[in-house]
């Protein structure tokens, strides 16, 4: 009896966390079925990335289910628990919940859904997207499917770099980048199955990890050097100076598996980000441009917080940078009062120093941390932001502030400037006329 009760409670708890189930017309998507179900399909898909705790997601759920039923047989609606499957959400740049993506003719380039959140509006938007996809096919612009047209097993997709015996050393071994290299054979069935996943992963990892493909039946020198005995064989070459260390790829064969594995390995191998003082405009640009977020801290004036105090704050920021290095954010700091335009833009200074804000230069928005400037406080703030929970505000004038060019901190304690005493010995005060009262 007790066992049955516990089982019932477990089932109720599980169902209370899942917004969608087998009885719904919404397809439950996970890393294991996403590529085959969505990417390789010919249908139009609308996919919701949600978190079970998200209030807006809960409000959308009945509308999403109603729309899925209405569109059954016409357009597919799916849902991904992106809180559980964060890697899958990360592949598509999901930063808040719910996020809805439209997978149309080109499944490797989904678009953001910006339409209504009621069933009728969802249905209307889906039918409009379906009509556009059909017209595109009719004009011959797209085949509509998500399968790779190449059958060689890799190397013919634009983001997959074709490797040979001749260019391998230059492209891979002399590179500072992390590489994943597929050694394949044109006749290999598993290689052909891997091809679209490899191409998709290469696109998603662009700018972070390079993916290459080498036909081992033609370029046997490199295949022999790395002891390739079966196809496909995938090897990882770590970031930085390349030595003899080569890591065997032991992850899954879907694009989501490849991306997740590569991202984890990249985080293990890349050094923690530098926490750089804002001494000129280019420092802010380097930290914020082309990054998801840059973390800006304003530390107390050196006279209010001497070198030991300041270094303790910088140590905390470096620890946080190391903890969140997988996100590849930028990290900068300034002294209170040195970059006033920055402080005004980020509403910093009204409640004391140190202060911290996260800036999204792509959307020209920022979020100001209200909690304690401590390891726990910063961790909670950044964690909430990464889950889409934090509140944001637009940057003033919709642009990054101007940074004054200053000398960098010399690492020393601050010294209060003392004004020289004025010598009054030569002044005869008795000779000064006095006004009578």
UniProtKB/TrEMBL annotation:
The keyword Endoplasmic reticulum applies. Residues 137-158 are annotated as: Disordered. Belongs to the protein disulfide isomerase family. It is an enzyme of class 5 (isomerase). GO terms for cellular component: endoplasmic reticulum lumen. Its main location: endoplasmic reticulum. It comes from the Eukaryota. Residues 142-155 have a biased composition (Gly residues). It is found in: Endoplasmic reticulum lumen. One of its GO terms (molecular function) is protein disulfide isomerase activity. Its EC number is 5.3.4.1. It catalyses: Catalyzes the rearrangement of -S-S- bonds in proteins. Keywords: Disulfide bond, Endoplasmic reticulum, Isomerase, Redox-active center, Repeat, Signal. Gene3D superfamilies: Glutaredoxin (3.40.30.10). PANTHER family: PROTEIN DISULFIDE-ISOMERASE A6. This is protein disulfide-isomerase. Residues 5-132, 152-267 form the Thioredoxin domain. Residues 1-18 form the signal peptide. GO terms for biological process: response to endoplasmic reticulum stress.
